Amino acid sequence: MEISRLMSIDKTRRTRPPVSPHGDNARAGWLLILQRKYKTNWDRAQVLRQRFRKRNRLATQIMAKSPRNKRQRAPRKQASQGARGGGALWIYGRHAVEAALRNPARVFQRLLITREADQALDFTPPGTVPAAETVSPSDIATLLPDGAVHQGIAGLVQPLAAPMLDEFLATLVKGDSATIVILDQVTDPRNTGAILRSAAAMGAAAVIVPERRSPHETAVLVKAASGALERVHLIRVANVSRALASLKGAGYWCVGLDAQAPRPLAEADLTGRIALVLGSEGRGLRRLVAENCDFLAALPMAGTMESLNVSAAAAIALYEATRQRRS
User: Which of 43, 56, 196, 275 is the most exposed place for a label (fewest CB within 10 A)?
Assistant: First the structure.
């Protein structure tokens, strides 16, 4: 082998790596590793490095040209579009897509549907939606993440425009007591989607999340929301503590859910304008966020369980607020 021949030359000669005139410390480090691994001198280590780099470039080019890799990568790339809130994304599932079709603010680029799903569709899509393309279930599956339950329907849509918090508060009618949910660094899109679904079911007006450390509008979030994203505003703010101050200025009482709080949620007055603040499952509410809440309340737990999943806790809190408002 050529590498073996290079390794056998001047094994006894050892040289220290010269100081790079260009400050290329990373290159010098790799050469030193090769020199020690193959027990060769500095000059031969440079030859080895050049040949390894050439071999790796050839392997990369061969893999890039492979038809199999193209088939596997293209759907993944397409399915993940919109993950950062930028481009179009595929949404799927009967409830999610039908709710999007009924939302005038949702812009469709494509609509894919199987014959069976088309027969089950109980309304005609509006004229602003492109004509539906009749395809097979496998055609839809290739555009979505592995294991996605699409129920024979999917749409390529633009993300919804998120309203600003000040604009949203300005639209509230005086005396309106709709509940708002604030999520402090809840990062799981399935939890966020489930909370949106509970918020829609309980008549909440909006869900507020921070711009950082919170999921963007993705196919997974839209699927978990089951159409709720088309009915409940998802508002992004730069700073949760400042958002709490804005809500207080609009007449909201901010109630933070904390497992260690001495006051049970059922004993708190949740009538009127209420903002329910929930933290991540691991850390809970951050200190500054908790301090900016008007008061903290807990969900009493029986047995050895210390806490609930954040989406389950949000559903219980929303139900309690709705119960008090109706009683």
Answer: 56
Locate the DSSP E strands across 44-151.
Answer: 89-92, 108-113, 133-134
Place of tokens 């599932």: 93
- pLDDT digit string, tens, across residues 268-316: 999 889 999 999 877 889 999 999 999 999 998 877 777 788 999 999 9
In order of start, what are the domains of the chain with their CATH numbers? 2-64 (no CATH), 75-157 (3.30.1330.30), 165-326 (3.40.1280.10)
Cβ-proximal residues to 17 (8 Å cutoff; 6+ apart), any chain:
28, 31, 32, 35, 42
The per-residue pLDDT for range 197-215, each reduced to its tens digit, is 999 999 999 999 998 888 8
Please report, to the nearest 10 degrees, the dihedral formed by the alpha carbons of residues 282, 286, 291, 297 taken in order: -20
Residue type, 271: T
Helix (H, G, I), strand (E, B), or coil: what is residue 50? helix
Please give the DSSP secondary-structure letter assigned to residue 132. P
Strand partners, 254: 275
DSSP state of 246: H
Stretch 15-22: mean pLDDT, rounded? 45
β-sheet bridge partners, residue 183: 278
User: Measured at the alpha carbon of residue 293, what is the angle toward residues 289 and 294, in degrees to the nearest 5?
Assistant: 165
Amino acid identity, position 289:
V
Cα separation, 144 vs 324, whole angstroms:
42
Nearest to 222 by CA among 122, 88, 116: 88
CA distance 37 to 50: 16
